[in-house]
């Protein structure tokens, strides 16, 4: 279809608002068009509209036997099941954990280096025949990976705990707590080009123009694995939230709050 091709071109050019407008026109006359629905779900997911995107994927899964659509739906179901492995329910909320491939890689290197040094340490020393050099090799191969792990745990988020009253973000040896009543609004900041993996959840309070906290919820760099579930939990707790493109600049807090209640088309026009 010509309109679908136009949408694909607009998406590749980064004009997602125009792409959504074309898709809405297509779906107005053909509400069960699986290709149009699939593209809309893909765009909405990249913007942070996780629940709406999932509901559309469910509909596409019922309407079409196309392998691409089936695979996309199954991947989404798999992500939701996987999310349960990296979050733990509590009496009054849930605790979310990260999953870092880099940390696992460094840990594996450290473990393998320790084993190799235990097995071949004496041979290495005999080959080098210089104690300071041997210590240097020991430090690089065995000690440095564990220093990297300690630094990683110190600077990166360890977990996020949410309850009916507050959100706690644990990083390094400390944590910060914000009551939901302290959060005036939340902005989901996205890229206009859905091929760029960028999605941030930014919370603003009443007293300062600076964000209370900023969480990476992008597909491959999310601060926690259960990014969709965490986002939905937070949005259900705050009174005001908006979805805005990354290049939009706020002069003060009130501009964020003023977006409450606007439809997506008006929002994008103001943000352009």
Integer count of domains: 3
CATH topology of the largest domain: PH-domain like
The CATH architecture term of the largest domain is Roll
Oligomer: single chain
> SSE order in H/E notation?
HHHHHEEHHEEEEEEHEHH
What's the end-to-end separation, in Å?
29 Å
Q: How many DSSP helices?
A: 10
User: Which class of the largest domain in CATH terms?
Assistant: Mainly Beta
What is the rounded Rg? 24 Å
Count of β-strands: 9
Structural class determined from secondary elements: alpha+beta
Largest sheet: 5 strands, antiparallel
Q: Determine the mean pLDDT.
A: 82
Poorly predicted parts: 249-253, 259-272
Task: Name some characteristics of this structure.
disordered C terminus; 19% strand; 272 residues; 3 domains; Serine Threonine Protein Phosphatase 5, Tetratricopeptide repeat; alpha+beta; 10 helices; five-stranded antiparallel sheet
What does this protein structure show overall?
Strand 1 (87-90) and strand 2 form a beta hairpin. The two termini are 29 Å apart. Helix 1 (2-13) runs antiparallel to helix 2, helix 1 packs parallel to helix 3 (34-47) and helix 3 (34-47) packs antiparallel against helix 4 (50-63). The chain has a five-stranded antiparallel beta sheet with strand order 1-2-3-4-5. It is built from ten helices and nine strands. The longest helix has 28 residues, at 101-128. With 272 residues, it is α+β, with helices and mostly antiparallel strands. The protein has helices spanning 2-13, 16-29, 34-47, 50-63, 67-85, 101-128, 131-155, 227-237, 253-257, 264-271, and strands spanning 87-90, 93-96, 157-163, 166-171, 174-179, 183-190, 199-205, 211-216, 241-245. It folds into three domains: 2-85, Serine Threonine Protein Phosphatase 5, Tetratricopeptide repeat (Alpha Horseshoe); 101-155, no CATH class; 160-271, PH-domain like. The radius of gyration is 24 Å and the shape is globular.
